Amino acid sequence: MVHLLAALSWEPQIKGALYVAIAVAVLCGSVQLLLSTNLGARMGFQAAAAGLFGFLTLIGTLWWVYAIGPKGTAPSWQTQEVLAGDAVEGIDVGPAFPAGWKALEAEDPDVADAAPVVGEALTGGEEGGGVFSTASDYVVSRAYETGGGTYGPLGLDFRPFDLFHEARYLVVEVAPVPPEPAEEAAAGDQAAGVEAAADQASPDEASPDQAPAAGDQAAPADQAGGGDQAPADQAAGGEAAGGEELADSYAVVMVRDLGSVRLNPAVFTIVSFLLFGLFTRRLHLRDRRAMAAAAEAARAEAEREPAGAGA
Across residues 241-258, what is the average pLDDT? Predict the structure, then answer.
């Protein structure tokens, strides 16, 4: 018992589950108990269940219409392919690219929504191994989209009959960030080294014995400039994360997955409605049997009365 109480105080999810279970047992159970004492156990349960699933059907309908409650999978962009170089020759989805596509700005909300997908496709996500090491190694140059329209059966392309969707595609082109020229990087490092050496040994404060030679003074500058020379040359070479040479541009082709936001509310509503219909049907059949039995009893009583009067 002590361990049970300790588990309840340590794990808040268990408390939440117990709260829901107790609330359902008290509220629904009290109604079912009251109906059972007045209508009988079987009929009381059926009446309580019919009321419960009728209420759940109304709740589920609101969830279904407004896409709230227990939602399904949210819409998202799915990567189809990553093209290197000129994307005009490699894109084979939708109309002719880019003539039949709509141009988008880099700040467009759709482009911003697809930015994480583009980053994962180009960098490889957490596993790595992509074209770029990080998302800061490239910039979005342009974007295009096409499709996404709706249509209905028999040419009824208007609401509420436009239930079908055309495939929607988005192409985001990126370009590698231009590396800093090696000569400018080396000159900047050398100037920084000279300034650091001048600060350490000022002519006014240094004694003749401690004054460094001209060759010794230039050494820190050369050393500071040469320390970052190799990375600068490597960055200027434009190599990908895997060691291959970077292309001038890359294009990420994506298709819109509409998801299933209303799937869970729809299943919940349909199941609740079927159970509501089942219990109300059983109550209806019980009423019909009761009315048939009452009519038979009244007919038998009517047949006995003339016989008794004639005797």
Answer: 84
